Amino acid sequence: SPIPNPQSPLFKYAYLNSKLLEIKNKKMENQNKYTFKNITETIVYIILCHCLGDYFFQTEYLALNKGSNNYLLFVHCVTYCTPFIIKFGVSWKIFFIFIIHFFTDLSKAKYDLISLTTDQIIHYIAALVFLCKDGNNNGNVNINGDKVNKNEVID
Fold first, then answer.
1. In 3D, which of 126, 123, 122, 47 has the Cα closest to residue 93?
2. Could you tell me the sign of the dihedral formed by the alpha carbons of 54, 58, 60, 63, in that order?
3. Above pLDDT 70, what percent of the chain?
4. For helices 70-88 and 92-105, what crossing angle results, to 10°?
5. Which partner from 55, 103, 118, 128 sits 20 to 30 angstroms from 140, CA to CA?
6. Residues 140, 55: Cα–Cα separation, whole Å
7. Which CA distances in Å does 35 have to 87, 107, 128?
8. Separation of CA 57 from chain center
9. Is the pLDDT of residue 106 over 80?
10. Model pTM?
11. Distance CA 146, CA 138 (A)
């Protein structure tokens, strides 16, 4: 087989695409790594989302009546999850937080089984799932959840 001519446009295009692919893969690897800065930033957003959802967006009416009305508890859980959805997007993690929040607030507001402190600790522990990586990552999904083909050519 003939040796490719390094001066040919096709060779230059292929070489440039391979270098761009390397840069893209390295950038994605860096995005997917948990660094102290990324974890700290995520924790700050978790606290902000929790405070907005559990205090700012919860009206006095919801707070007083969610224990006696499951629909109002459902509405509170939806409004609680809204800041998380806005910041982190929709995923299994939001569903997990919604379910945990629903049953935690049900235990607190309706059955008075747990204290406010325990209620808040459970909410924060549940919200920390955002520090978890998706189990199906395997280097084939970037931080935005987009499927990535490592052999694709960058235009």
1. 126
2. negative
3. 77
4. 150
5. 128
6. 38
7. 19, 36, 16
8. 20
9. yes
10. 0.68
11. 13
**Cβ contacts of 61 within 8 Å, gap of 6 or more:** 72
Residue 131 has pLDDT above 80, yes or no: no
Angle CA(132)–CA(138)–CA(142) in degrees, nearest 5? 70
The pLDDT tens digits for 55-69 are: 999 999 999 999 999
User: Alpha-carbon dihedral of residues 41, 44, 45, 49, nearest 10 degrees?
Assistant: 170
pLDDT over 70 (residue 135): no
Q: Which residue has the tokens 């490592």?
A: 150
Structure tokens at 52: 């907005």
How far is the C-alpha of 106 from the C-alpha of 100, rounded, in Å? 10
